[in-house]
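### Sample
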Amino acid sequence: FRSGMGSNIHISADPCPHAVLAFALDKGSIYLWPKDDWANPWTRGKQKGSTVECPGGIKATSYECYLKPVSSCTPTGKGPRFIGVKRDRGKEELRGTEVVPRVFKELLRCSRYPKNYWIKWWRAQTAAFLVRPSSSTLDELQSLRKESLVGEMQDEVLGSYVRHGDKYYEAKEYEFKDYMHIYSWILGSDAEVERRCPDSSRMLAPFKKQLPRLRAAQRLYLGSDDPAVLEEASRSFSCSGCLVYMNVSRLSKRRPLMEVQKLLGARQMVMESLLNLQLLMESDAFICTWTSNWCRLVDEMRMTVALKASHLSLEVNKRCPRFNWVHGGGAETPDYR
């Protein structure tokens, strides 16, 4: 990948009227990225320069080999080619309702789903279609899970991903203690969120049947690119089996993702990311930040493939946590696209 996995998937699912799958569906076709395309999310286009080590011992020129193919067809170079959206070319912004393929608009209109969430709904459907690990990838994920998972994903598990790394360059970053207040509020051991947020009781009301099981288990699955976060969490969740995490390499120095890829290896990064995605999809509730492409991808996969749309999903915030695009009722969320 030339950027993070969440970012790459969202390039393909990018919510603009002619962006990839929406572009193709409106033409009654399916879009296949030409391998020499500069915008191909799976390669570096003409600059890719090297082969990819894929699960099952296969070598390829694209990281798409980790997933089931989008189509059995092969790009021929004929037909319309996606060349970027108006925003990429410096022109006017596009309204959210313009980005959804026409075939789905009547369905969304009849459902009375908030119009400003249509793009979020469409991006989730696209992500669910694209992120379908191949059988070889699933086999390797099972082996990696046995080797690296500390603790067990049993009973009810609160899942969370703390995105640090180089993210502070482009978005607000939250300390682990900010996440911890929300964990403790959900698990019934801290009233800090209730003091700061008058609506906190109302926010949890739709999930009251789920809360007793989460509170009885007191178990957290935590993913993070920051080793300090795991150290802090181990002190807060000190009871046996209460903290579940992946025992993998994490770099203490903040580096751009592509630097990390060079140090750890692309294949290791992809497999660890996919396992983290799998574990967060299994979790019974989810806490993250919607400014992170990775967190948004996890949330989209949970709401669709994992059938967790009726489960709690919140964004960390200094004052009041915020719902995702399923439960937000049209309220603004930081993932503007």
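The radius of gyration is 20 Å. This sample (FucT6 protein) is used throughout the tutorial notebook.
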